[in-house]
Each structure stands twice: as structure tokens, then as C-alpha cells.
Structures
1.
Amino acid sequence: MRKNSTKLIILAVAAIICILLYGFYDIKGGFDYAFPRRMMRVGAMVITGFAIAYSTVVFQTITQNRILTPSVMGLDSMFEVVQTLIFFFAGSVSIWVVNQYLNFAASIAAMVLFALVLYRFLFRADKHPIYLLLLIGMIIGTFLGSLVSFLQVLIDPVEYLSLQSRLFASFVNIKVELLYISMGILFLAFAYGYRILSQLDVMSLGRENAINLGINYDRLVLNVLILSSVLIATSTALVGPITFFGLIIANLSYQYLVTYKHSVHILGAGLMSVIALVGGQFIVEHIFEMNTTLSVIINFVGGIYFIYLLLKESRAAG
Amino acid sequence: MRLWMLIIAAIILSFISLFIGAIDIKPSHLLDWDSREMQIFLISRVPRLIAIILAGAGMSIAGLIMQSLSRNKFVSPTTAGTLDAAKLGILISMLFFTNVTYTQQVIFSFVFALVGTLLFMQILDRIKFKDVVFVPLIGIMYGNILSSVTTFFAYEADLLQNISAWLMGSFTLIIAGRYELLYLSIPAVILAYLYANKFTVAGMGEDFAKNLGLSYKLVLNIGLILVAIIATTVVLTVGVIPFLGLIVPNIVSLYMGDNLRKTIPHTAVLGVVFLLICDIIGRLVIYPFEIPVNVTVAVIGSAIFLIMLFRGRAYAKK
């Protein structure tokens, strides 16, 4: 246990170094202008990192595997579908768009519903092989993605412009007004999430054992799914979808920190994602001076890592 | 289903396709050789129909060949990285030559499609665990990695918009003079028919095929070359059409079995019918504007693929 805490401290120090580097490196001209803007990005990246870390780790616990993540199962495409549907049916000046809270609530409601349907049909009904689930998840993602582009072509061009500004999010182009909302949501989600951590530890023993030990399993699953959906919605709204990120950090954390405790894994994965996002953005912006976005690189690295994981799993299975 | 029923359906749909468009053309107009309508008919409508027929038949047969050679029902140009490799090839040719000619693009794209598919087949050879679902999963990830490489370089070279043009499969821009490359797929399709029996035997496995006196490697390479030719011509003229090569051969194989000599004609005609329906839907939904065909194909195609996954796992194992 002590060893894990040392590792966590190392991660925390590395994360802080990354943040400082990103905040102060090569500031030219107005410090007052550049610094707050950089800190705003860092804030968004920290929020995203922890949101993805938490949702991925708990999602993998309730689905009892280490390859499926909420994003891979198409949950973040669902966010785009909801936004497009709102614009399609209600229009850009409706209350559903203008009121950020209402908009967020609608997205989250739809995502929770989607997550529940996925869970009921895929994870509960009967034991499907994991590769089938994965392929189904990816095709659902493709389906939702092409549905979005189908609807987007049908939308009035003026409406489309305002939809695009809603959907086109990245680490560089962060919406400040959303930052405060998501900070609040993240705080609430973590306040609740903290309380159920020890129950989640029991849950990883499997359904039968957990029920035996007095866990209200189905209710907890429902709560966790809602929590995951909220967090994914937050991060997608803030910086757009990054499909393979959760997969990478969760698995790195399982490898690096040897424990069954969710609190340690979530903290570790969260810190790792801060290092990866802030450090990665620093490298992209200042070292390579590239125009490319970080998410392209994450998808590249994540894709390779994903194949590696699949091949490793398959060797264990076959 | 009989072949003649499919052919009649294809002919009726072709007729509809010829007479849909922003400019109203009636069959009576065509009696006057010099009329404006006749010009439009010859320059736009007829080439479009030919392109749809060639692309639909070609992509379906390419999928059929790949499924037979890899002995996996879910392998197709979409799920083995072929289309992504062809796209990467086009990009590389644009980076290499400042004034890239059409021929250079064709050659690069062909070589990349061929090497990319070959590489995937090599990876397949290495994996011991050949689950029906596992293989396309690896293939999709492989395609994702290739396309993130493409996005990366396109971003750096400011060619992203060019690249997304190939991403969007669309018949909107097909006019006389811009689609003739597709004729190259005709000899490929004929060759595929001539080699049908050999592909069927090769599909029974390397050892079995060698036992029957078949030069397995040669047949495999010929098959992959045919696939690469078809994929290249379609990507360069029309753009990426997803799922076509995946779904059509599977539907045919459901009622016809796996003897390629018999299924190739059905697959080709059904591919044409499917693509014609998708294109006509895309042209009617927001008439007189158009929805790119890849969007309609992706929505319908991914939905059908999902159904196949849910229902057809037992069938695919056979």
C-alpha cells in the first residue's frame, strides 16, 4: 500500500510539473493575456482527464472487463446525436439550446437511457463474448455517427452553423461558459462517487459475491451508469470525443498500480490523464510546433495500444 | 430469390435513377438529339448511372473475394483497412509530387491498397485466435490507425479538406470525363468470375487447397490484386462507400451458400440494387439537393450489420 502511495506522489509531482511547464513556458508579450487563457485550457484538461478516468474505471468494474469503455461503446457519439436531434426538431433558438442547463440535462437523460439499454441488452441478457460486444459497440458508434451526418445535411444551413460551433470542441477551442458548469457537475459527481468507492471494491468480486456481501447490486449499477453518462457528457461537451483515451489510462493504471482499490486506480488514472493531456498538449504546441490536434495523436497511439491489448487478451483466451 | 428478379429490379431502379434530378427530363425530350435535356442526360445522368453500377458491383465482389480468401464472413474493404490504405496512398502521392497527375495518384493509391490489405492478411496469419468477430475488430482498428496517420499528415500539409472529399462517397460530381477510371474495374470483375472456382477452393483453407492441386499463394495474390484495383478505382472516382462489400455478399450467402461461381452474379446485381436504392433515397430526401451516398449507405449499412451481428453469429460460424 505504501508503495502505491509513493507511486501516486510521483504521478502527482509529474502532473504538477506538466501544468507548470504548460503554464509558464515561453510566455511572450502580455502575461496577463496568455496566462489565464492557458490556465483555462489546463482546467478543462484536468476536468476531462478525471471525468474520463472515473467513468472508465467504474464502467469497467460493472461490465467486468478491461477493454470496453463508455466511449468505445458509443456513449460519446450519443451526445452528438442528442445535440443534433435538438437542433433538428427544436431549432437553434429554442429553450433546449439557449438554456445550457436544460440542454445538458436533456443530453444526459438520453445518454443514461442509451447506457441502460446497452447494459440491459448486452451485459445482462446472457453472456456475450467480449469481442462481439466490442464490435457491436463500434458499429453502434458508426451508426450514430452517420445518423448525425445524415441529419446535419437536412438541417437549415444557418442552424447548422450554430450546431457546428456546439459540436466542434477541442483542447484549443474550449468554451469558457461550459467550464464552470462542468466544474460544478464534476464536483457533485465526485462527491457522490467518493461515497460509493468502497462498494465498488466489493462489486469487483462479481455479482453473486457482491449481493451476498450486502450490496444492492442492481441499484448500484444503475447509479454508476448514470454517473458515467454524466461524466462522459461533461467531457464530450467540453473538449469533444476522444475515443481511446479512457482505455489507455485505465489500463496503464491497472498495470502501474497493483491494487483492487478503486480510489487508488481512479486517482492514478486521473493523474496519468492530466500528465498525458497537459504534457501532450505542451509537446504538440511547443516542442513539435505542430498544427495537429492532440486527439489525432491520442487516437493513433490509442489504436495501436488497443490492438496490442486485444492480441494479448486473445492469447490468454486462445 | 432468382437472378432475373434482381436484374429486373436493377433495371427499374436504373430507369428511375436516370430521370431524377434538379432538371426535369422526360423520356420524350430524348427524342430530340440536340436538346439541352439530351445533353444533360448524356453528360450527367448516364455517367452517374454507369458509375453507380460499376461501383456497386465492384465493391460487393471485392468484399466477396476477401470474405472467401480470409474465410471470415465479416472481412471486407471496410473492415480490413483497404479503403483507408487507398486514401493514405492518395495523400502520399500529393505530398510527394507538387503537381500530382491522375496516373500517379492511381498508382500510389493502388500500391497502398494492395500493400495495406496484404499486411492485414499477414497479421491475420500470425494471430492464432481466429474468431469471426475478433478479426474484423482488429481490421477496423487497423483502418483507424491508417486513417489517423492520413489525418495527421493532411493536417500538417493543409490537405484536410481534400482528404475529406474522398471520405465522402458521392455520385454528385460524376460527369462525363470524371468517372472513366471506373471502367478498369470491369476486367477485374470478369477476372474474379473466371477465378471464382479457385477462390472457392482457396476459401476451404490452405492445406485443403494445396491438396487439390491449387497454387494457393498465387490465387491469394490474384484475389488481393483484384480487390485493390476495385477499391482504388472506386475511392478515386466516387469516394469511400462503407459497408457495401460487407453486407451484400453476406445477404447473398444467406440464401445461396458459398459457391462463388454461383454467387458472384447475384452479389454483383444485389450490390447495384442496394447502391441504387441508397442513391435514389439520398437524391429524394432533400430534393432538389442531395445527400452524399456514403451517408445513406452508412446509416442503412451499419443498421443491417448490427442485425447481422445480433442474429447471425451462429450463422457466421458455419
2.
Amino acid sequence: MVSVNIKDTLKKYTMVIALVIIIGIFYVGTGGTILLSQNVNNLLSQNAYVFVLATGMLLCILTGGNIDLSVGSVVCFVGGIGAVMMSKGMNVWFAVLVMLLVGVLVGAWQAFWVAYINVPPFIATLAGMYAFRGLSNVVLNGYAVSISNTTFLNVFGGGADCYIPDFFHGESLNITCLLAGLIAVAVYVLLSIKNRISASRKGYVTTSAASFYAKLVILSLVILFLAYKLAGYKGIPTSLLWIILIVLVYNYITTKTTIGRYLYAVGGNEKATQLSGINTKKVYFFAYTNMGFLAAFAGILTVARAASAQPTYGQFYEMDAIGACFIGGASAYGGTGSVFGAIIGALLMGVINQGMLIMGVDANYQKVVKGLVLLAAVIFDVMSKREKK
Amino acid sequence: MGKTILEMKSITKEFPGVKALDNVNLKVEEGEIHALVGENGAGKSTLMNVLSGIYPFGSYTGDIVYNGEVCQFQKIKDSEEKGIVIIHQELALIPYMSIGENMFLGNEQGSKAAIDWDKTYAEADKYLKMVGLSESSRTLIKDIGVGKQQLVEIAKALAKNAKLLILDEPTSSLNETDSRALLDLLLKFKQEGMTSIIISHKLNEVSYVADKITVIRDGSTIETLDKSVDDISEDRIIKGMVGREMTDRFPKRHGVEIGDIAMEVKDWTVYHPQFSERKVVDGVSMNIRKGEVVGIAGLMGAGRTELAMSIFGKAYGTNISGQLFLNGEEVHLKNIKDAIKHKIAYVTEDRKGNGLVLTNPIKINTTLSNLSSLCSKRVIDQDKEYQVAEEYRDKLKTKCPTVEQNVGNLSGGNQQKVLLAKWMFADPDVLILDEPTRGIDVGAKYEIYCIINDLVAAGKSVIMISSELPEVLGMSDRIYVMNEGKMVGEMAGAEASQESIMSCILKS
């Protein structure tokens, strides 16, 4: 048994610690406003698209630091198609299906050039960024199209009722939300302990008991705190459910399945992966097609939240997603990174955004700060790698 | 004649874990052609890299005395200023630039703000004439053949005002005519007073041009032969190159029964993937039996790796022709996956570049080539994976704290074991091991040899490609010798000797 020492643990959770510190700074800077229920709630639902896009972007970045520049345009394009379809009175589920399908097709189109023709991803997706932005304009005819279908808005987190209703009608606190928080903690704790017991029974390496329980307690407290905060406003935003779903599914894919394993392998050493009998082209194809799918999903969340589609939507979304991944510890050379890391990165950016907004920092300086944070995160990555050598 | 232009005194250069040069002395007189010979890895190139400042002063011990003064080169520029110019084995020309641009790369004519192109091309043409090239210096490098490219390299060296020219295997990629032309050029330069040091494996060429021959073996100078005094026949040189004692460095195999033919290739020909008119493997036929270790000896660039990789599901080359039989049946392997399915494994010579994912842990590397056996519906059974990794760690005695350790943090020997584990887990019948002990220490080598013995004892076939002759001799039941893409010899392991293999190569 080898226990993981404190230094390694700190290194592993650097960005989490950074997140806590930054929240602390803004807590002081905003006089506590940033942690008001409503703001916590907004933070999550406003940034829903970043979480989704960052998850997809992570998969691309894993294959070797490759990025997808087209996602912002695809978000707009797909959102535009859906808005137009619904404005013409088509069935909402049919529209959603078409939107997702279009996303997959767009992804596959770009993935084909990247994977099979060896067009550099930067170029292939830059082309997509222009083309789909143009097509969005065509689809929307240059105008904003509003979405009034309440089913769509409620399910995907837009409009006034984009919260899970409180079945218990609590007065000041949303009881459903609190219960959900408690259940989530219970499930998390039970699963963790079960895994640990079975691991140690089989004689696998486990972390030291202290750090295991510390992590358990801290994470449980975070979940409870979040549930409490959300309960103090309107409860669980529906977009949060989608985020949780996406994160869990993709975390599973990247850690437990063969395709996930291959993503890391290709990014770590493409040649060796090829010589292990793995079709690396398929791996690239998967990463970029999947990015199209998730971009479409982000498009759905975006237009639902705004209850409309406009030709300018989704601008710079790709940059938010890329930034989140790198801040969250993905290597700019591929092969390392995790879905949870990307989520932490997205949260960190979101907190910085919102904190500065509340503090009334000039929008231009907000960008400067975001840029510097991204740079600092990558410098950290490069330096910590150099140290190893 | 007779004036010493260069003297390298007791040069010692260590890399982590290896003493590449151990007290090497080299004395070169002005106006002579001095040849350096030795096996792969003997330290010839390292010595020349020390001389040219690629390994800066301070990273080695010993003195370099050039033209009577002690030199402490920090970088290549320093040595070039003194007129010492090295031409590397790998051509360092940029294909999409013209001859003239290449010649003055890093030494641009004109001012820093504006390159004087007229002067560049005029100068370049002048030097091209000196090496006997009639091409315009405006021709792109990609449009001239390899032989002419090599001449451009020499012209480039002349443009740097070379007084001492170092050529590292200048003819390795040239055909006979081009080689002869190049050697004659060197002889011509010699008459004009140029001093040259030439590193070469081709002993006939060495005998042809060299005035003196220094033999290096295992990082030490063995002897210097003088053409006017000593016998410099090829046999004499070979004796100097390989004359080392064989000790008991190889575990014995007992009672391993050699069975039927497991794999056979007939008339196997492979062309270079980029230069598709170049034959890299030329009509090779060979076979291997169950329970047999077959060594493939040869120099670097003989086409052994290319042969192995082309057999391994066409992982290398284009226009592959020939027949491949597994257990007597002809098979056509479409890709690497297919090869693995047909129970062939190729363990690369370049474990860091082509073999392992260094940023991933041992367990992930161990299972990569056969991940599907641990899966149900593409979901990995991580318990099983852990057990497999642990099993191979025990079996191969890999030294690591846990199998969760990243492979990049292991020593070379342990990395090699992980690489072997990876391919053993793929459960092959025929394992092709390419330089399985390169860059690892003696103890780990012995353990790798033991693993090979275990493999054949279990009825597997092992093809071992190695540039280390003692290893080939010590481990193989049978030895094939390859040179320049062709099989030039086959001998029983017990009957082979370093001399017989070397002369097979050098006289082919």
C-alpha cells in the first residue's frame, strides 16, 4: 500500500484550490453578494453552454491539443434551425431531434476532413466557423426568431419556469431541492465507500484513509451547500440536470470505455497507439463528431435560455470552452485532462465573469483578466511538466 | 605533411548510466584522410559531436587541441569558426528551399536587414563548381537526387571555410557510382590540403581513401592503423572492430524443442513510403520455427526494422509484395489489428517514440494492444485490467511502486519490460523484438534474455533484431544477416561468429 502524499494531492487539486481562493476573493470584493442564492443559481444556468461545450472540447484536446473553433457557429446554426422549425409550429421533439442530428452531421463533416484527409483541425474547424456562421444568418434570414413553445423552454432551462417544481411547497426553501441534495450526497458517499472497500479487499492501491474521508466530507459539504443555496432561490434549474447528465456520461466514457482510453492514448503517443492495432483515424472521427453533437446540445440550451435565436449567438463560445479545458488542467499537447477538470475550469471562468460583473469591473478589463488567468493556467501546466524532467 | 592539426586527448563523455566514451585519444595530421571505424554504438558519432561542440565544453572531460591551441567549444558555431565542419549522416537540407538558400542558411550573405541574393547565388555557384555539380544554385533541393544532395552538403561545408571536414557515413544513402564520385572528391580535396575525418561502415571505401584508420570499440580507442605501415585489409579492420571477449552474459536455454515452421516470408519486397522508387526490403525470404529464437543481424539502415514492420500488418512501406505464411497457410494481413489477430507482435526499437504512452500509467500501457479482451460492450473491466498489470509486473519483475505509475517515470529497462508485457498480453505466437535491449543496463538485459527464453520455452517464436552482435550470437538458434535490404547470409547460431557475420555484411 502506498499512500498518496500531500504534495501530490495539492498538485492534483490545484485548480480546485484556485477556484476556492477566487471565490473567496470575490466574496470579500462583492461583500458576499456573489454567494447569494440567486447568483449561484445564475452562475450555473448562465454557463450551462460552457459546461457542455467544454466537455466536448476536452475530448478533442485529449487527442493531441486539437481544438474545434466552429462550436460557436454551430451553436448558433443549430439553435437557428430549431427556432425556425418551432416558429412554424412543428412538433417540439421533432425539432430537437433534427437539431441534434444536424449537430452530428456537422460534426461528422468536419471530423471526416480532420480524421481521414488529415486537414489540420485548426483549419478544418476555422472553415466551419465561417461557414456555419454564414448559414446561421441564412437560416434566420438575418433576424431574431423568438421561441414561445413552453415545453421546449421548460425542459431545456429557459423562460420563467425553468426550475424543477417544488413538490412539497416549502415556504422560504425549496424542499425538493434540499432532498435532492441529500440524496445525491447519500448516493455519492455510499458508492465511494463501496468502491473503496472492494478495492482494498482486492488489494488495490487506495489513497490514505485521511485523504479519502477528507475528500468525501468536503465534496458532500459542497453538494449540500449548493443544494441549500439553490433551494433559497427557485430550486434546481433544469439546465443543471442536463449538465449533471452530460458530465456523468462523459466522465464515464473517458474513464471506463475503450474509446475513452483511446482518446488519451492517441494524445499521449499516436504512433504507439497505431502500432497497438488501434485505428487512430476512428478516434479523431469520434472526437469531432461528438463535438458536433454536444455543440448542438449547447445550442439547444442557449436558445432555450434566451427564448430566441439570433444570428450573433454563440460568438466566442469556442474560446470559453477551450479556455475552460486548459484552465482545468488539460495539456495543450494532448493526452492528459479530465471532464471534471474541464468543469472546474468552466466554473472558474464563470465565477470570474460573474464576480467582476457584480463588482462593476469594466467589460474590457474583464477580458484582460480572463486572458491572464488562461495564460497563467497553461504556464503552470508547462512548468510542472518541465519540473518532472 | 606530418604536422598534427588535431589532437583529442583522453576524452571521456558520460550519459546518464552509460559511459559513451572512455579515455579516447585521436590524433589527426594535416592533409590526411582519417577514418573512424567501429560497430554501431561504439562511440564514433559521440566523439565527433564532442569535437564539433554539439556536446559543449564541460559536458565531457579531456582536451581538444586544434592547430596547437586548446579549444573549448560551447556550440557548433564556435567550432565552425575554426574551420571544423561536420556533415551529419542524416542530410540536413530543407527540401523546399533552393541549393543556395540551404548553403547559406544561418550564414546569410548581405546584411541582417536584407539578404543579398545575387551574392548568395554567385557564391553558391562557385562552391558548387568546386564539388563538381553543374546544377544552378537556384534549383530546389527536392529536385535533385540524394547523391547530389550529399555534394551540396559538402559545398555548404566549404562555404563555411572548412579546414577540417568531418563526414559521418557520407555514403550510407548513396549508390555505388555516387559513392565513388564522393570519395574521389575527398581525394581531390586532400591534394588541395584539406584534412578530413570520415566515419564509415563500408570498409572497402575506408581502405580506398583513408591514410589512417582509428578503430573504436565500446567507447575506447583500440588502435590506429597507418596505411603506409600496417596491413589495412578488411579482415584486419574487422578483427579490430569486434575482437572482444565473450563472457557468460546470456542465460542458457535447456531442452526447448524446436517445432514446425510458425511463420515464413517468401520474396518479400517493400518500397519506401515517401520515395516510392526506393526498395527498402528486397526479395527477402526467411522462416522461423516454434520454440526458436532467430536473430537478424545487420547494420543500422539495413532494412531489418522495415522488414519487420511491413510484415506486421503493413505498418511500414508501400507496394509490399511477397508471400507470408503462418503455420503453413498463406495469409494477407490488411492492417496492424489484423496482424495482432493472427498472433504476430512487433515490439518496437523506439520504446519512447513508438511503443509506450509515457503520460499513461503502466496498467494502461500493458493492456493497450489487447484492450478488447478486458471489455464487455466496450466498457473496460478495470478490476481485471489491474490484475493483468499486476500479473505481468510479477512475471517480468518490473520495478515500480505501483502499476498506477506513469511509464514516463520508469527507467529504460523497466520501460522495456512494460513494452514486452504489453505485447505478451496480446498473446502472440510470433514475437518480433526490435533492438530489445537498446539503451538498458546489463542487469536488465539479462532479465530480458530470460524472458525471451521463457517465451520460446512456451512454444512461441522470437525474432530478435539486434545491432549488438554478441547478443545475436549469444541468444539465437539461427541467424540471418541483412544488408541494404537483402538477406545476405543465414547461419546456425552455434557456428556463427562476429567475424563471419561482419564479413557477410561488409563483403556483400
